[in-house]
Please model this.
Amino acid sequence: MHVAVEPRPRVAVADRPVARPTDLAQRLAAACALEDPPPERFGFRFDTALRCFRITSFFYRRWFRVECDGVDRLPAGACLLVANHGSHVFDWDGAMLLTAALLEPDVPRLVHGMALHRLMEMRFLGTIARSMGAVDGNRPACEALVRAGAAVLTFPETVKALAKPFRDRYRLRPFGQGFMHVALATRVPVVPVAVIGSEEEAPLLANPRWLARLVNTPVAPITPGVLVPLPTKYRIHFGAPLEFTGPATPDTVARHVRHVESAVAGLVADGLARRRHVFF
Model:
């Protein structure tokens, strides 16, 4: 069966700093042009990604009504975005962060999410995630992306964040260290990010282990937002980029990870203090 593919609009590199692209297709094309080699080598598909971003843009503007703070701090070159994780069912927090990076900055960015291997193996969800730029969450893939000039998103709390009960919302779980090994190996900046609103969009009421084993997933959240997320007000706070150097010794890596974890926790605390209400 022949499927029509939307052609990628041409965006001249020289025009990018002068004329801020406003059309979604133009912004996505401009973001892709920043990577060399292009993102398609990992399964990214421009036409599919554009359709998906049109959907996420609706949720971004109309459902979660996202507000961004500090988005201009996002570097135009390679970087690692490190954020707290709060979405229990679908990765709405990741989707809103990716959409913010594409819609808000003067220089739009295609952010590649580091996804769970189990998700990437799922026929439908894995295909969609890969088409939008997500990759299997391993160190070689992450290094390959940043060396190509890409922006990469990681949730270093991993699946531990998904099992948090509602009473522990916005309390960070200990960060994994994989992202710091990539940062030290590639010398790219780390951008701490706080996402406020995701913990309430699908509050976790229960997480029975027997159900997780039955459906073969890391968690099996029982929540009122299992099908449609609650229309919480999202606020995304981008911190100042952090640069790290030195040998990747266990002590050095652990110290740097604690620094990033503290930066994310500070942004989360500040974001919670500044918000007026969960829903508006």
